């Protein structure tokens, strides 16, 4: 295992000579998907709990579709499916976008994690004690101010445990990127396996790297929960 | 209409793929539920030699992506088996991809179900088991008459979630060469050069299964929550 890592270490961690690869690529995919997914999910979560049917309903359909089908199929649709359409091929901008494997992968990942995150945040919004919202109203907050200053922060704090789970699942889901020829950790492992036939070692290194990343993420979330959820569990400290 | 059902001649292939996906999912579910219950028992046991390996199993498996484990176990399983048969001088045994897929998925999701069951067992009030012991019930009676019906109430929401994750991860076995629903859709898409159509079709099949599963789990939850205030509707 050590010899294999000496040979492929750089590719596993940072670069395969032609660009980002391994851990760096996995982290890049993870961060972009999570940041974009997070940004999109907040307005969508607010729409999901809205009283207006026409705001709520499209988001409901979106999360239903993306949570009910495997990410792999979504990735295949983005990567091979959409590009087969003439509309996409004829439009210069779309053509350029969908020709790039990394773009397609990121699109699938963002849409997927966003759907799960919307449901998590929407659930948290529904579970905010009514008194908090009444208090905010009594202080004269309405409309977007009420959402921005009270509902969203309160929901995000309460959603932290569920959201951390989703983040770890997303980190794990990035391993699908190699099927679209993106050079993440697993792609490097497969190449190493194909060249050396040291199957267990090649995939073992990949597993170890993912494990370290997962543990780091779990540790970060534990810190975040200690900071932002302290008010919910006063006796734990 | 006939043309729509026939799917340009690829209908039977897709149906076979869907059947393969379902078989794989259910067999892996059976294996992982069994493994989950056993490992949860081991994790809660007072014997260290049971607790430590079970904890190691759940921590290691759950911190690595399922796809990495699928590739790792699937490709290594045959190699290990070869070493084993060679060491004991047995005949060469070849595992077919389907069996390997079931074992791999079952082994991975067993770790998730373990945590599920462990939490549920801990949620059952200890007094219930003490009372069962006081009534002189045997170990097996204590498990299937007292513990199991009560732990299911706590375990069901998590079980439903994990089942859906397991079901969706069966799509990954096409990567290791099993001709499941996704593989069939990909092949049909390639030969007809209409990949989008067949991929959406495969997605719809998954959607139907997940929707049905949700219904069934709702019903099960209602059943195991009988007699609990606020849930029995």
Give a short overview.
Chain A is mainly α and 237 residues long. Chain A contains 11 helices and no strands. Chain A has one domain (2-232): MetI-like fold (Orthogonal Bundle).
Structure description:
- The complex is a heterodimer of chains A (237) and B (233).
- By secondary structure, chain A is an all-alpha fold.
- Chain A has a single domain, classed as MetI-like fold, CATH 1.10.3720.10.
- Chain A is 79% helix and 0% strand.
- Chain A has helices at 2-13, 22-48, 53-68, 71-81, 86-90, 92-99, 101-126, 130-138, 143-173, 185-196, 199-228.
- In chain A, helix 4 (71-81) packs antiparallel against helix 7 (101-126).
- Chain A is flat, with a radius of gyration of 21 Å.
- With 233 residues, chain B is mainly alpha-helical.
- Chain B has a domain at 20-178: MetI-like fold (Orthogonal Bundle), CATH 1.10.3720.
- Helix content of chain B is 80%, strand content 0%.
- Chain B contains nine helices and no strands.
- In chain B, helix 4 crosses helix 5 (97-123) and helix 7 (139-169) runs antiparallel to helix 9.
- Chain B is flat and about 70 Å long.
- Chains A and B meet through helix 3, helix 4, helix 9, helix 10 and helix 11 of A and helix 4, helix 8 and helix 9 of B.
- Chain B: Residues 18-217 form the ABC transmembrane type-1 domain.
- Chain B: It comes from Pseudomonas fluorescens.
- Chain B: It is found in: Cell inner membrane; Cell membrane.
Reconstruct the topology from this structure.
The complex is a heterodimer of chains A (237) and B (233).
Chain A: H1 2-13, H2 22-48, H3 53-68, H4 71-81, H5 86-90, H6 92-99, H7 101-126, H8 130-138, H9 143-173, H10 185-196, H11 199-228
Chain B: H1 2-6, H2 11-44, H3 48-62, H4 66-88, H5 97-123, H6 126-134, H7 139-169, H8 181-192, H9 195-224
Helix pairs in contact in B: 2-3, 2-5, 2-8, 3-5, 4-5, 5-7, 6-7, 7-9, 8-9
């Amino acid at each position: 295992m050590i010899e294999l890592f000496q040979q492929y270490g750089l590719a596993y961690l940072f670069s395969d000579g032609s660009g980002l690869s391994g851990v760096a690529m996995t982290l890049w995919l993870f961060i972009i998907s999570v940041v974009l997914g997070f940004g999109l999910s907040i307005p969508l979560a607010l729409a999901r709990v809205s009283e207006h049917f026409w705001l709520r309903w499209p988001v409901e359909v979106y999360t239903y579709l993306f949570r009910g089908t495997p990410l792999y199929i979504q990735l295949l649709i983005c990567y091979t499916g959409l590009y087969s359409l003439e509309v996409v091929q004829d439009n210069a901008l779309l053509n350029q976008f969908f020709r790039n494997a990394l773009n397609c992968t990121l699109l699938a990942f963002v849409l997927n994690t966003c759907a799960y995150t919307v449901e998590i945040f929407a659930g948290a919004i529904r579970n905010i004690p009514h008194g908090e919202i009444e208090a905010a109203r009594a202080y004269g907050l309405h409309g977007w101010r009420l959402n921005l200053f009270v509902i969203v922060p309160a929901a995000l704090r309460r959603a932290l445990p569920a959201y951390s789970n989703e983040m770890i699942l997303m980190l794990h889901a990035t391993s699908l990127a190699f099927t679209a020829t993106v050079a993440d950790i697993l792609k490097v492992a497969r190449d190493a396996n194909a060249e050396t036939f040291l199957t267990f070692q090649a995939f073992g290194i990949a597993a170890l790297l993912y494990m370290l990343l997962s543990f780091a993420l779990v540790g970060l979330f534990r810190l975040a929960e200690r900071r932002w959820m302290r008010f919910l569990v006063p006796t734990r400290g | 209409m006939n043309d729509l059902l026939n799917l340009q001649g690829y209908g039977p292939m897709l149906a076979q793929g869907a059947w393969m996906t379902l078989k794989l999912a259910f067999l892996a579910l059976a294996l992982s539920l069994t493994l989950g219950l056993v490992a949860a028992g081991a994790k809660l046991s007072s014997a260290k030699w049971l607790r430590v390996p079970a904890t190691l199993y759940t921590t290691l498996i759950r911190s690595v992506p399922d796809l990495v484990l699928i590739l790792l176990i699937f490709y290594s399983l045959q190699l290990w088996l070869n070493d084993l048969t060679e060491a004991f001088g047995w005949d060469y045994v070849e595992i077919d991809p389907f069996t390997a897929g079931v074992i791999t998925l079952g082994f991975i999701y067993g770790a998730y179900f373990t945590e599920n069951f462990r939490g549920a067992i801990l949620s059952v009030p200890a007094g219930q088991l003490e009372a069962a012991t006081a009534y002189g019930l045997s170990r097996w009676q204590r498990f299937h008459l007292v513990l199991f019906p009560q732990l299911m109430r706590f375990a069901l929401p998590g079980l439903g979630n994990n089942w859906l994750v397991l079901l969706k991860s069966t799509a990954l076995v096409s990567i290791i060469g099993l001709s499941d629903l996704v593989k069939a859709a990909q092949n049909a898409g390639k030969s007809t050069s209409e990949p989008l159509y067949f991929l959406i079709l495969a997605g719809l099949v998954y959607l139907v299964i997940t929707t049905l599963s949700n219904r069934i789990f709702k019903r099960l939850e209602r059943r195991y929550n009988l007699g609990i205030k606020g849930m029995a509707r």
